[in-house]
Amino acid sequence: MTQQLSKTQLRQMLLQKRRSLPKEVWREKSDRLCCQLQSFSLFTRAKTILAYFSFRQEPDLSSLFTDNRRWGFPRCVGQSLAWHLWQSETSLEIGNYGIKEPLSDAPMIAPTEIDLILVPTVACDRRGYRLGYGGGFYDRLLGSPEWSKIPTIGIVFDFAYLPQLPTDSWDIPLDYVATETTIFYSPK
Fold first, then answer.
1. pLDDT of 106-150, one tens digit each?
2. Average pLDDT over residues 91-105
3. How far apart are CA 60 and CA 53, in angstroms?
4. Measured in whole angstroms, how far is the alpha carbon of residue 105 from the centre of its chain?
5. Quick check: 123 and 79 in contact, CB under 8 A?
6. How far is Cα 95 from Cα 11, in angstroms, rounded to an integer?
7. With 80 as the cut, is the pLDDT of residue 3 above it?
8. What does DSSP assign to residue 111?
């Protein structure tokens, strides 16, 4: 199925499927995914984690943000992501794409401080490739030398974990993929 569809067609189909999830099913799947992460050694050892605020019914990781870790979240700055420290009592604003972001004056986080990146996805495949929203923000980030060695986990619901996605030369595979039922290692 995925081989015949373009990235754009596949993205539209999967986003529609995700949006059609009833809120209670979305919440249950998100909670189960968070439980998977909480029992994963790479996650439990991490002190500083980059994550995202759920948008368009992406898996919601917000129940994780209350623990005693340092959490970083992106701000879209031009064609790049700038990462800022965020604490639960800190204010947020809505960025250019309608996504919640830390305020611009929030402290920045350097790549050397980060133990793990939880990457939002539309879909992932068994090789670790992800289908994003098409802006290339994460591929540019993960393709740069200072970010390329930080472990990554793609976050996706089971129905969007596919055998193979169409890829381009600039696509960067992730190390792991987490769903509501398990965490998969993606050999690079």
1. 899 999 999 999 999 999 999 999 999 888 889 889 999 999 999
2. 85
3. 7
4. 23
5. no
6. 22
7. no
8. G
pLDDT, position 188: 62
Count of other CB atoms within 10 angstroms of residue 82: 17
Size of the chain, expressed as the number of residues it contains: 188
Q: What angle do CA 178, 122, 153 make, to 5 degrees?
A: 30
Judge contact between 107 and 86, C-beta under 8 A.
no
Q: Output the DSSP codes for 4-20.
A: TS-HHHHHHHHHHHHHT
Contact 102, 90 (CB under 8 A): yes
Pick from 54, 66, 69, 65: nearest CA to 23: 54
Name which CATH class applies to 7-185: alpha beta
- 164 has a pLDDT exceeding 60: yes
